[in-house]
Specification:
164 residues; alpha/beta; 2 domains; 5-stranded parallel sheet; 35% helix; 20% strand; binds zinc ion
């Protein structure tokens, strides 16, 4: 029986997740950078949490998927590394669970088929895609490269569209 493997983002550390439970915990160096100055027992971090660098292939896959869902701008390097690490670990046949409350991370994970846990989000998660739209005239844009409305020149805003 395969043990559950958890990939943790920094909010998962703040929520104390590595100190509970008995799963195998993984994170990336980007997350380590974010949490190492916090009062998180560093000895515990080293004994219970494995810090791993994701593969270049998985990183590329995450980036191209994020471009498709419109989450590319919302994903940080840390977010990308976590998603890629979750992909790597699931390729190795692990039962991976990505722990993150980040909206864009959860959205891309969903499309990549990575199971999710939240530290606070409850209820069923539905996929969200981002749409650019103009607050001035209401025109919607699907090309992520357009940042200013061609009709009235207003800077475009982003809105989340929930798929049904
Ligand atoms: Zn406009």
């Amino acid at each position: 029986m395969s043990e559950a493997v958890y990939v943790l983002d920094s909010t998962a550390f703040y929520a104390g997740i590595p100190y509970q439970g008995r799963g195998r915990y993984y994170t990336t160096y980007f997350v380590l950078e974010e949490v190492k100055h916090q009062s998180i027992g560093s000895s515990l971090l080293h004994t219970r949490v494995q810090v791993t660098e994701p593969s270049v292939e998985s990183l590329q896959r995450v980036k191209s998927m994020a471009a498709k869902t419109g989450d590319a701008n919302a994903l940080s390097k840390t977010d990308e590394s976590l998603l890629a690490l979750a992909l790597d670990l699931s390729k190795d046949g692990n039962k991976v669970n990505l722990v993150s409350d980040d909206f864009a991370v959860r959205n891309v994970a969903e499309v990549l088929g990575i199971p999710l846990s939240g530290t606070s989000i409850k209820g069923e998660w539905k996929q969200i895609t981002w749409k650019m739209f103009c607050k001035g005239c209401g025109k919607e844009y699907t090309n992520p490269k357009i940042t200013t409305c061609v009709v009235c020149g207003t800077t475009l805003s982003k809105k989340a569209v929930r798929s049904t």
